Amino acid sequence: MINSSGCAKFHLSLQDCYMDHKDWRKCKTEMINFNKCMNNRQI
């Protein structure tokens, strides 16, 4: 689903951030970008 949505790069960025920090709160920018992408692709 993520790959076909066109949002994979945002998802990978979010995963990378979490792996680096182990804290979702430090990944707000990545979360917002991924969320915007997914919201724009809802059918």
TrEMBL record:
GO CC terms of this entry: mitochondrial intermembrane space
- Designated name of the protein: CHCH domain-containing protein
Q: Name one GO biological process term.
A: mitochondrial respiratory chain complex IV assembly
The protein's organism comes out as: Intoshia linei
| InterPro entries linked to this entry | Coa4-like
